[in-house]
Specification:
- By secondary structure, the protein is of the alpha+beta class.
- Helix content is 42%, strand content 20%.
- It is built from seven helices and seven strands.
- Strands 1, 2, 3, 4, 5, 6 and 7 form a seven-stranded mixed beta sheet that branches.
């Protein structure tokens, strides 16, 4: 019910001033993002790891009139996650943006849709979020068919909803190919954990993708 929305995974940790730091930088932005750092814990002490990819400028504001954030993501690998971003609630409601239910890796679709519509997207040079990589119950630690199926659904959703839209078709087609590369890398890396059925599903989805784009 507030002016902003912020998503925090239950096993992750915020800096003590995370929300204040993001809100203080608000200048009519639809989305404001801080720096996310991986972390592990030993004897109740947090040990920082590497940072998720952030713009090389560290602090930058994109007017995003030509889908600059999505372009930068494909060119430089900005991390397509939902957390550690302060979203203006009226922006989310105006575009009726919601997470797709029933899938894993919903962040990739949410990131695409929010950055497709957002204007004035700001990245700040402030470490605000610590992403735990030592949780053995995380979906990143327990992968299988459902992970690949979810990646495929994200690609299909982008193609069906946006690749035929006059204003979005080019960026949507490019991003569908970008997602395809992500799940192909996943399928190759985790092949021993995947069934023949899901590999066949992936192959059929890729054939349909080429026909649609």
């Amino acid at each position: 019910k507030g002016e902003f929305l912020f998503f925090l995974d239950s096993d992750d940790i915020l800096s003590h001033d995370a929300i204040c730091s993001l809100a203080a930088c608000f200048q009519n932005n639809d989305i404001i993002t801080g720096i996310t750092t991986s972390a592990t814990f030993s004897n109740d002490k947090m040990i920082k790891g590497s940072q998720l990819l952030h713009p090389k400028e560290l602090a930058i504001n994109f007017e995003n009139n030509d889908f600059e954030v999505l372009r930068r993501t494909m060119e430089n690998g900005l991390t397509p996650v939902a957390q550690n971003r302060l979203y203006r609630k009226d922006f989310i409601d105006r575009h009726q943006l919601r997470f797709k239910s029933g899938i894993l890796h919903e962040d990739e679709l949410w990131f695409f849709e929010t950055m497709l519509f957002a204007k004035n997207v700001k990245f700040i040079n402030k470490e605000t979020y610590f992403y735990r990589i030592d949780n053995q119950d995380s979906i990143t630690k327990n992968v299988g068919d459902r992970n690949l199926e979810s990646y495929i659904q994200v690609m299909e959703e982008i193609i069906v909803k946006y690749s035929q839209h006059e204003h979005f078709k080019i960026i949507a087609s490019w991003y569908a190919v970008y997602i395809k590369k992500i799940f192909l890398d996943f399928a190759i890396r985790e092949r021993a954990k995947l069934s023949d059925e899901i590999i066949s599903r992936m192959e059929n989805a890729l054939k349909n993708c080429y026909r649609s784009l």
